[in-house]
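Q: What structure does this chain adopt?
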Amino acid sequence: MKVGICGFPKSKSVIFANLELVEVQATFYKPVRISTAERWRSAAPPEFEFTMKAWQLITHEPRSPTYRKAKLELSGDRYGLFRPTEEVFDAWAATDEIRKALNARIVVFQCPASFKETGTNIKNMHDFFRSIDRKGITMVWEPRGDWTRETITRLCEELELIHCVDPFAAQPESGTDFGYFRLHGSPPGRRMYSYTYTDTDLQFLYERCKDFSQVYVLFNNITMFDDALRFKRMRS
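A:
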C-alpha cells in the first residue's frame, strides 16, 4: 500500500520527508519544463514515487473550462476524447517526456463527464492505446461520464487499463489485484474537497485496500496532507 496526495499543497521538502507518493497535477493543464521535472525527481528520496496526469489535450476538448484555466487558446475537433490525431499523439509524446524525467511508471488519464459510452469514444480509446508505445507503463483510466460496469471491465481488459475510482463512491471494474484510488473528499452525502475524513472513514478505506495485493491511495481534498499522514499511521 502506497499513500500519497494529489499535487503539492505544502512545500516539496515537507511532502518528500513525510509521504511516499505524489500524483503530479500540473501536467494535466500543460506540460512542465523537463528541467523542472528532473529537479523534482532529484530532490525527492530515491524510494519516493511520482505518478502523473496526462495532458488534457488527450482527454478533454477545447471547450473545457480547464483549457481556459491553463490559458490554452485552441479550437476545433483535433483535440481530446483520445482522438487518433497528430495533435493528440503529440500531446502524449510531451506527457511521456515528462514521465521519463520523473521516472514515473503510472500515468492517469482523467476524462471529463462529457466523455460518455459511445461507439466513437470506444473506438478512439482503442486507436489511441493500441498506437502508443506503452514501454511497460501502467495506464490508469478515470472515467467520469456514464459508462456501464460491463464496458469498463471489457475496455480495461482489452486495453490493459486500471480503473481508477474514489472507493467511497464506486468499486473498480478492471478485474486486477492492483488498485488506484483517488479520494476527492466526498463520502456519500458529504461536501467534496472541503471534507476531512473521519477515523471511521479511514478504517473503511483500510478495509477496502485489503482487496488488492498492491494499491495506491491518493488523497485529493483540502486536508489531503493531514489525512494522508493519519492513514499512513493506520497502515503502520
